[in-house]
Design a protein that fits this description.
Blueprint (H helix, E strand, L loop, with lengths): L4 E5 L5 H14 L7 H9 L3 E8 L2 E13 L2 E11 L8 H15 L4 E3 L7 H9 L18
Protein name: GNAT family N-acetyltransferase
Keywords: Acyltransferase, Transferase
Pfam family, one: Acetyltransf_1
Length: about 150
């Protein structure tokens, strides 16, 4: 792992940062679309944190933590974990996950959840290695039009 990797909550993003995020999105999902305004809006949203991994200042990985209060407690959801393909295998995803877990602890979140496709076996092993456990649950997504 590169000694120059630094993981932090993004407080601002340069044009170079946004370009790096735009390059990461297709590596996360073939249907993901980049929207500069949407990404920038995350910086000011109280319930959303964009956690970035930088190698010599350049964003090479990211994760998103959404935190929200519910009647049963403040919950968290981890989404959009991705590391640039050229940087994989260096422990960057683990650093991102550990940072998100640390933030969740600091905020006193009651739970921290994530979802992953079953085909992403290596990612699932990584999630389990940092303390995530599989749950007997059915993931549902509304299939109607929300726009």
């Amino acid at each position: 792992m590169s000694a120059d990797i630094r993981v932090q909550v993004a407080e601002s993003l340069t044009d170079e940062d946004l370009a790096a995020i735009e390059q990461l999105l297709p590596q996360l999902s073939s249907s993901a679309t980049f929207d500069r305004a949407r990404v920038l809006s995350m910086l000011d949203h109280d319930g959303t944190d964009l956690i970035v991994a930088r190698d010599d200042g350049r964003i090479v990985g990211m994760a998103t933590l959404a935190s929200f209060p519910l009647p049963t407690g403040v919950r968290g959801h981890l989404d959009d974990v991705v590391v640039d393909g050229e940087m994989r295998g260096r422990g960057i995803a683990r650093l991102l996950l550990e940072a998100v877990i640390g933030i969740a602890r600091e905020r006193g979140l009651r739970t921290l959840d994530l979802t992953s496709r079953p085909s992403r076996e290596s990612a699932i092993r990584l999630y389990e290695s940092v303390g995530f456990q599989r749950r007997d649950s059915v993931l549902m997504r509304y299939a109607g039009d929300l726009a």
